Amino acid sequence: MKKYLIGIDIGSTCAKTAVMDRQKNIIYKFQQPTGWSSIDTAQNILGDINRLGIDTGEAVIVATGYGRISVPYADKCVTEITCHAAGARYIYGVEKAVVIDIGGQDTKIICIENGVVADFLMNDKCSAGTGRFLEIMANTLSVSPEDLCEMARNGSDTSISSMCTVFAESEVISLIGRGEKRENIAFAVMDSIASKVASQAEHLIPREAPTVCITGGLCEFTYLRELLADKLHCSVVSSAGGRYAGAAGAALYGEKLI
Amino acid sequence: MTDYHEMWKELGMDIESHDTLCEVLPNAIGDVFLSQENRPKAMDFWDMVISEVHGIRPHELIEEQKKGRKVFGTFCVYVPDEVVIAADGIVTGLCGGSQFWVPAGEAVLPKSTCPLIKASVGARLGRTCPFFRIADMYVGETTCDGKKKAYEILGEDVPMHIMDVPQMKREKDIIRWKEEIAEFAEKVEEFTGNEITAEKLGESIRIINEKRKALARVFECRKSECLPISGRDALLMMQISFFDDPVRCAEMCNRLADELEERISNGVSVVPAGTKRILLTGTPLAVPNWKLHNIIETSGAAVVCEEMCTGTRYFENLVDESKTTLDEQFMALSERYMKTNCACFTPNTGRIDDIQRMVKEYKVDGVIDCNLKFCCLYDTEKYSVSRALKNEGVPVLSLETDYTDTDAEQLRTRIGAFVEMLNA
N vs C: which end of chain B shows fewer Cβ within 10 Å? Predict the structure, then answer.
């Protein structure tokens, strides 16, 4: 008898795990940096699961994310698109919505209809408009990504023209050299991310009464949510649990395997 | 395996560099083709050809050249093979499909050129493909700006004839293409020293029609719910058909079709019932570009049709065989070729009609529209293709890729998610 549904989402920067009981309540969730080896991370997660007193024999384990193939003890690997959609449906209680997942190295736009994926888009190799972009810019400005996002609230009237992370970074350095206020540079960075994500999302957002929800590592960045709502001309919802959408969706997928 | 080093040396090839290419091919063939289960027996022929792709056919071509025959290398399904064959010439496809040739192409071309053009130029200038060495004359065409300019560079190294493909499909364009074909015929006569008569052209029209019918028979089998051949195997057959002798090609394809028809009547399928059926559309897949087929078919779906130059565009529509004068025959050729729908034309709504028709004929669950990076024509057309299909409720995944393997995992995620979506 399986007692647990476990979803493991090994992303490019962060690995998230969600443990559900059979009533689909999340009873444990935890995260750790993915580090340089997905295989080691997967082993650490297994240790963590065992330490919670969970016998993996009593669990269905589904892996997702870039590192999904590195989880040898998973019963199945499912792509992050399917899992984020299922997770967003679970967290936000939506049957029809557009999910924007801003991850460490990519951004996914997923259109949900009748509770399942109807269409999706992913950015290409370019890291503009992703968490990685924000991290690099925050580093350049010597602040944390969270602080950069809040700092942007008090900035204005500055922009970064380049869509490429490397070129954008040199633009930021030029702005610093020119003596531009840090708030304004922060604004330019956040505005650039929001613009890039919004232009991608626009392809899939329905005209009438869209519900847009954010999942992934940047879901707690309130100012980003506000910028997106502004650019997409609709309300955008977010929640702290959004970070675990992929893991929750993977856990839920396990139900199909029983 | 025969050792072809002597032949390659005589062709003036860069042997050392070419050896590194030869080293990787067996692994790729093993991974993509030989690892499949329950393949049609008739695939033996193409397995053999591909295992010595730079040996068997090049050797045959050289033997024919010794008898005085000329080899014409082509890059586009708009170039009429019939004309060359009527003058006792031989046609071979020349498109490069490997990343291996790209750096040598980038030495002279902008990086922002499509990989097919870069690989083709690289294969010639890097002297690492026997077909590019053997061809006595290259026949280029004006289907995109990248190719037009690349042909100027290639033309400095090898005799080159350019056919001016119209950009629209009005009556006057069809007449203009007929004139281009007539001019090409003169060029071929001059180059081969052989006269093209109505009788000879009539015969070559029949030969190429037979080849088209044979390829179409194999594709007809792919329409069956009981799928008797994988997309990978069908693609290999298709790719080799550009290089092979047309009569033998028809014979082998018919032999394969016989087996596939028997498989269908015996209920032999290469995939479990319910496997999602994918139509792939977009830019061509030149040898040895098997990347997309391999990812799709190892992600739990099957490719049942390619609306591509290396697919339906190559064999759909026959040339009218009833014409008896050269003038009428050139017109019949023009009419057939101008039915092929390429993104270089405007408007090109015929391609969307074709895709919609094939979605029904091949019982397709989802369409993957993929263009080679920097192909602005097919990239732009994705918008109308995807809109038309979505309006009909057909799921579409748009992709862009090149010849490198570095995006394989990203493609695998997108394709995997698409297949999961179709299965949901």
Answer: N
Per the CB < 8 Å rule, is B417 touching A117? yes
For CA atoms B393, B394, B399, B405, the dihedral sign is: positive
Parent domain of B215? 63-423
pLDDT tens over chain B, length 424 residues: 789 999 999 999 999 999 999 999 999 999 999 999 999 999 999 999 999 999 999 999 999 999 999 999 999 999 999 999 999 999 999 989 999 999 999 999 999 999 999 999 999 999 999 999 999 999 999 999 999 999 999 999 999 999 999 999 999 999 999 999 999 999 999 999 999 999 999 999 999 999 999 999 999 999 999 999 999 999 999 999 999 999 999 999 999 999 999 999 999 999 999 999 999 999 999 999 999 999 999 999 999 999 999 999 999 999 999 999 999 999 999 999 999 999 999 999 999 999 999 999 999 999 999 999 999 999 999 999 999 999 999 999 999 999 999 999 999 999 999 999 999 9
Residue linked to tokens 């500055």: A158
Separation in Å, CA of A182 to nearest CA in chain B:
35
Indicate whether A133 belongs to any domain: no
User: Could you tell me the maximum CA-CA distance found in chain B, to the nearest angstrom?
Assistant: 62
The whole-angstrom distance between residue B183's C-alpha and the CA centroid of its chain comes to 25
CA distance B124 to B14: 11
Instruction: Name the domain count of chain A.
Output: 1
Q: Quote the pTM value.
A: 0.94
B31 found inside a domain? no
B5 within a domain of the structure (yes/no): no
Asked if the structure places residue B321 within a domain, the reply is: yes
Is residue B22 in a domain? no
Give the range of the structural domain holding residue A62, as residue numbers without chain letter.
4-81+246-257
Give contacts of A81 with chain B, Cβ < 8 Å. 413-414, 417, 420-421
Distance CA A241, CA A251 (A): 14
Peptide bond into B166 cis (omega under 30): no
The interface predicted TM-score of the complex, written ipTM, equals 0.90
- CB spacing of B390 vs A119 below 8 angstroms: yes
The answer to whether A19 and A12 have CB atoms below 8 angstroms apart is no
Residues of A in contact with B411 (CB under 8 A): none
For residue B421, give the chain A residue with the closest CA. Answer: A117
